[in-house]
Amino acid sequence: MSGDCLVGPCLTSAVKTVMRFRPVVWQRLRNSEESTRVPPATKLYYACWTVRISSTAGVAFTLFGLGACIAIPEGDGIPSRITDRDDASADAFINVEANAPLQDAGIDRPITDPHAILGVDPSHGPFSGGRVAVIRGNGFKSTARVWFGQVEVPSSDVTAGDPMRIQVLVPPGDPGQVDVRTQNGDDASTSRTLQSAYTYDAFYAEPSKGPTSGGTIVKLIGKSTNWGSTAEVRVSNEPCLTSKIVSPSEIECVTPPQPAGSVAISVKMPGEATQVVYDAFTYSDSDNGYKGGLSGGKMQGVLKVLVYDAYTGSPIPGARIIVGDNLDSAFLGTTDQAGLHVFSEPGLSDKRSVTIAKSCFQPVTFVDVPVDTVTAYLPPVLSPACLGDGGEIPPVGGKGATLATIKGQLVWYGGTEFKRAHWSNVPSPKGPDERQAAYLFQPSSDPTSKFYLPDASRAVLPDADGSIGYEFSLTAYPGNLSLYALAGIENRKSPTAVFTAYAMGFLQGISTLPGQTTKDIFIPMTKPLDQAVVLSVEPPSAGPKGPDRLIASVAVKLGNEGYAIFPNGQRVALLANTGDLPFVGMPGLTDALAGSRYVSSAKAVTGANAGTPLSVIEKYLSNDASLPIQMAGFVQVPVLQEPAAGQPFDGRHLRIAYAPGGASVDISVVRIQAGAGLVEWLVAIPGSKSPVELPDLASLGLGLPPGPLSIFVYGGHVGDGSFDYGTLVYRQLDARGWTAYAYDVFHRYGGN
Questions:
Q1: CA distance 170 to 153
Q2: pLDDT score of 44
Q3: Which fold has domain 117-201?
Q4: CA spacing 20 to 30 A to 355: which of 169, 573, 637, 653?
Q5: How far apart, in whole angstroms, are the C-alpha atoms of residue 480 and residue 132?
Q6: How far apart are CA 270 and CA 124, in angstroms?
Q7: CA-CA distance, 704 to 690, in Å (whole number)?
Q8: Is the pLDDT of residue 64 over 80?
């Protein structure tokens, strides 16, 4: 081999090349330059590789270079290759980046079996089932049947998209791996099994998504678990902010802050293997209201208070904490850089009111706290008077949300196999101004929401592209989602756009990730809207100010995701002439909606603008449309007695009264707004406790600004009798967490 022969040309001319890597260990003593990076008494060794290259031309030579060496401490041995290491250990947590696309390893595999199963996506899910999965393979027909282990998936939960894809709703199962089997109808020759194709996770998180700021109270629900007080729970390899062992199969965890994405949750018991569920929780830029509030055990000399920014989730240092009703006898503290302060006082027992305040943040008071942990979220005051040192208003979020994209098809049945059918359950348009159209919706968080027709550009029309259906695309906050679609006749040429829905489709358990696209989602449009639900309402007592009319609504509860809202789902009547109110155009609760419930609500309001005072019944559940639904149990409207009309608010005393009768008041909430609404003092009160004494924040320089006040008083009824003030979460401070409530607004004056 000549001295000027480069490696590349020599290898190119070789007919056959064999490369062998041989590890060689070189010793360097600790006085070497690199040895300064390790403890002084440690010897460094260099693991290097020689490369011997030979060819059929008889050329052989050895290459050596420092670039092929790595330093290792004495006694550690030569490390294994990265590609040989198992990264699926309990500590190998993955945070999915928003721009990392999912890869389907089965797409590029050659298919030789005419009825093969290549894989299941996703390949794992909760033991409770209910998630959408796509089985990829070959030779599927529209009559395809699917088994997970020994359990056959109901035919209503199986949709064969084409010969290579089947969408299924995964049935419940025991934790562990199961085989997945498919078969076309009764043809046993087409039966194929993919062993250990799907894993049922040992536990799941509820809720399964929350804000990036953390603070979400998550329940881990396990099956065949044996969790105890020594269990260590981690979210994306970070410990929970707080955790509580409820039972051997249930743990409550308060999530730590994390970037947007899907993360793993692990539970470790001493001496046992770590249980890990990947993609168990999704952080996104939304707020589900499960964060903050009261938690822990009975207050017995110790009280922990955590304070965070309600927008960014960042800790708030320097917040003043007052434990007690009166400053003369209260315990005072200040949060540290972590937004934490721990009181340890023998006098802390029974119940104590806790107030948290800081300049340029909005104060909060939890009256009569019975537990040892308070987690408060303070919104910043958005006022020029609160300019920071940098000349900017304190941060309030504003960061862009990372959404997920969902693409799929609305499917009608009755056509040729794997060819789309026409909209058989939607009538033909009667005039040139009408057209058939379908729209997709995410479930609403409020069953009393009014139906709003989306923009015409979002319509799915009969001339849309598609193979077995009609294509759609939409964006949503990531997580495990549900979607429903309504198809009908619309007329946008009338003075107000009119949409009459005739058919519905529903699909739950759609897994999505931030910045990624979930494809091949098929929503069967098989549910006719042919039911009528009748409400028979017993209205509340009217006071001198009102209410005087009723707004009633009917929605359908779609699992834990929310409520389906319908075009004919709301009616208005005078309070004196309610009678029976029919709601036509509801779906029957069968097939995909089996187990769902009609959710009836009635709102007694004042005036044509639906103003205060008002009283609302929400979440009245039923599953039978054949009988009128009797609705009673309104909360009586609250009255603010102190400060009385015409009297100033002294910043310390509140007195609230409710008329006799009606539903019980589980929690009273007072929101005292000052500074034209820029500053709000939130006061949470257990039950209908009155009077209430508050600490004098003005004497600490943290009082409300002087001037007119608007005092909003709410009485909330949680509904099932299980409400515990000691486990209060923020969603129970407003209508999201109540089944019935009443409120009124009172105008007073504050300040000296």
A1: 7
A2: 36
A3: Immunoglobulin-like (2.60.40)
A4: 637
A5: 9
A6: 26
A7: 22
A8: no
**Architecture in CATH of 638-750:** Sandwich (2.60)
pLDDT tens, residue by residue, 385-407: 786 533 344 454 445 568 899 99
CA distances to 211, 544, 548, 738 from 663, rounded to whole Å, are 33, 20, 19, 12
CA-to-CA dists, residue 50 to 58, 59, 63, angstroms: 19, 16, 6
Q: What is the pLDDT of residue 184?
A: 94
pLDDT for 74 beyond 50: no
E strands in 492-564: 498-512, 517-524, 527-528, 531-537, 549-558, 562-564
* 496 vs 284: CA distance, rounded Å: 36
CA nearest to 634, candidates 657, 664, 654, 612: 664
Residue closest to 292 by CA, chosen among 381, 385, 383, 213: 213
d(CA 513, CA 406): 10
pLDDT of the residue at 79:
36
Could you count the other beta carbons within 10 Å of the beta carbon of residue 19? 10
Domains 531-631 and 638-750 belong to one CATH topology: yes
Residue given tokens 């009988």 in the structure block: 627
Q: Taking 90 as the threshold, does the pLDDT of residue 290 lie above it? A: no
pLDDT for 16 beyond 60: no
> Which class in CATH covers the domain with range 531-631?
mainly beta
Under 8 Å between Cβ of 564 and 527 = no
> Residue holding tokens 């500053």?
679
- According to the 3-state scheme, what is the secondary structure of 254-272? ECCCCCCEEEEEEEECCCC
Helix (H) or strand (E) holding 199: strand 192-201
Looking from the CA of 215 toward its CB, the CA atoms found within 13 Å total 32
CB atoms within 10 A of CB 584: 12
Contact 390, 384 (CB under 8 A): no
Over 90: is that where the pLDDT of 426 sits?
A: yes
Which stretches does DSSP call E strand in 106-185?
117-121, 124-126, 132-137, 144-148, 151-152, 158-162, 165-169, 176-184
Tokens of 110: 């050659």
Assess contact for 704 and 673: CB atoms under 8 A: no
Predicted confidence at residue 752, as pLDDT, reads 54
Which residue from 625, 620, 616 is spatially nearest to 584, judged by alpha carbons? 625
**Domain ranges, ordered by start, for the chain:** 7-84, 117-201, 531-631, 638-750
Between strands 165-169 and 132-137, the pairing is antiparallel
181-206 core/surface letters (b: 16 or more CB in 10 A; e: else): bbbbeeeeebebebeebbbbbbbbbe
Q: Could you tell me if 339 and 319 are in contact, meaning their C-beta atoms sit under 8 angstroms apart?
A: yes
How far apart are the C-alpha atoms of 221 and 202, rounded to whole Å? 9
| Residue of 679, 135, 697 whose CA lies nearest to 382 | 679
Tokens of 365: 């008071």
